[in-house]
Design a protein that fits this description.
The complex is a heterodimer of chains A (153) and B (146). By secondary structure, chain A is α+β, with helices and mostly antiparallel strands. In chain A, 38% of the residues lie in helices and 22% in strands. Chain A has a single domain, classed as CBS-domain (Roll), CATH 3.10.580. About 4% of the residues of chain A have low confidence. Chain B is of the alpha+beta class. Chain B has a single domain, classed as Roll (CBS-domain). The chains are: A alpha+beta (153), B alpha+beta (146). Chains A and B meet through helix 6, helix 7 and strand 8 of A and helix 3, helix 4, strand 3, helix 6 and helix 7 of B.
């Protein structure tokens, strides 16, 4: 199983000249916490997280939708807050290598690059999904699934 | 050892880090930042009574406020207790559950971790996405062969 088998292809990206407001708005729309940043040549030049945006606004937390009213969100650019030269992985790398890299580097998101081209993004959710699918295939004999979740009030 | 049969007990982080319902949001938030985590089981008299997540903290506000300054937010965090903002309907897992079933629950609810609770309602550990990644890396052979 390789990275290409479990990644999310054609990820949503943002340009470095966009505002922090645009980045947060896009994240809220897509339901993610990281966006690959694309330079003028169309190449990957960085990655921006919701936490980078929070730092830009100098708030201890992204409180509600408060950032929508913060003037700085429209003034500060993605390029000035992003992590440049992020750790990336190739689509042909084994999936467990991606898991190991995320664990050792304490990151939740890896851009997937074939040469100079961004072809996908891999998050911890993709890895969980792969694990579940793998376990399904492994359990070829029928077994009784215990109800593992319970609710405590 | 197969990845499909790995149990929560084998891979959970134990003991779990917990907070008391009487803590201020400020203290709980600082604790989370220090540990680099997004969720804390809330425990009283050895029983799980709730879970506090970064989202709970983000949603915390006085009922009449539509906007706050950073100063007001800091004041609010000193005044509000964990009990006031925690989620009381907690989804948990048990030590004997399979990691793969816990993973399914995490994905379904978009959680990053689950408190592990024994039959007596005691929190015996916490299973996070990082713990699951740890298991997958340790069993990398199984993944490579799949």
């Amino acid at each position: 199983m390789n990275v290409a088998d479990i990644m999310t292809a054609n990820p949503v990206t943002i340009t470095k000249g966009s505002s922090v407001y645009a980045a947060l708005d896009l994240m809220a729309h897509v339901g993610c916490h990281h966006l690959p940043v694309i330079g003028s040549e169309g190449h990957l030049i960085g990655i921006i997280s919701a936490n980078d945006c929070r730092r830009a606004l100098d708030w201890p937390i992204l409180w509600h939708d408060h950032w929508r009213e913060d003037k700085r969100a429209r003034e500060i650019t993605v390029g000035s807050m992003m992590t440049t030269a992020p750790i990336v992985i190739e689509p042909d790398a084994p999936a467990h290598e991606a898991a190991r890299l995320m664990l050792s580097q304490d990151i939740r998101c890896l851009p997937v690059m074939r040469g100079e081209t961004l072809v996908g993004i891999l998050t911890t959710s993709d890895i969980l999904m792969a694990f579940i699918n793998m376990s399904k295939r492994e359990a070829d004999s029928p077994r009784v699934l215990a109800d593992t979740t319970n609710s405590t009030r | 050892m197969s990845i499909a049969t790995a149990t929560v007990r084998e891979w959970m982080t134990s003991p779990a880090l917990t907070v008391s319902p009487a803590w201020s949001i400020r203290r709980a938030y600082d604790f989370m930042q220090e540990l680099g985590i997004r969720h804390l089981p809330v425990v009283e008299n050895n029983k799980l009574v709730g879970i506090l997540t970064l989202s709970d903290i983000r949603e915390a506000k006085p009922s009449d406020a539509t906007s706050l300054s950073v100063w007001e937010l800091n004041y609010l965090w000193d005044q509000l207790t964990v009990e006031r903002v925690m989620t009381t309907d907690v989804i948990t897992t048990s030590p004997d559950a399979l990691v793969v079933d816990a993973a399914r629950t995490l994905l379904e609810h978009k959680f990053s971790g689950l408190p592990v609770v024994d039959e007596e309602g005691r929190v015996v550990g916490f299973l996070s996405q990082v713990d699951i990644n740890r298991m997958l890396v340790a069993k990398a052979g199984a993944m490579a062969g799949a």
